[in-house]
Amino acid sequence: MSKIFKIFLAAVAIVIAIIGIIGGYETSRHIKYPVAYSEWITKYAHENDLDPYLVMAVIKTESNFIPDAHSGVAGGLMQLTEETAEWNANEMGIDYEYDYMDPETNIKMGCHYLRHLIDVYGNIDTALAAYNGGMGNVNSWLSNPQYSSDGETLDYIPFPETRNYVVKVNDSWEYYKTLD
Questions:
Q1: pLDDT by residue (tens digit) across 62-91?
Q2: 3-state DSSP call for residue 119?
Q3: Strand (E) positions, 61-132?
Q4: Is the confidence at residue 122, as pLDDT, over 60?
Q5: Domain locations along the chain
Q6: What is the third-level CATH fold of 36-177?
Q7: How many CB atoms are located within 10 Å of the residue 117 CB?
């Protein structure tokens, strides 16, 4: 083989390796940060004055976009309980039979509930803590000077799961915003 041909083969090998690395990186990003149901996410996020990327981040953290995911008594993309789904149905005037595990219904109700929590607490991180840890716990933490210095925002979340949840949602939200 000539020296030029060897150089050509080495250059081709380098290009193929670079393409493989980039392709692997892109594949791993899509696995780590999936996106699905974007039409419904966008529709119901906008109807509830939410950032669609925040909704994606909640879904990523709650279910990793697996529509039939279950965690304890919660289920679906946005991990609603039957009780929360029923509350949402009443608040939203849904008087027909619904399946809260249906992806579109779950997103519709989850967005409505997230908007409600943001309206109640006036702070996204506090609303996320309530989404994960429950409003009763958050209200208790807000009234405790050990966890809230002003009674309106949380300085510290005593439940590690909820504290980690808020961090994960925010990290995912930051990533999803880069898709714009």
A1: 999 999 999 989 999 999 999 999 999 999
A2: helix
A3: 70-71, 74-75
A4: yes
A5: 1-32, 36-177
A6: Lysozyme (1.10.530)
A7: 19
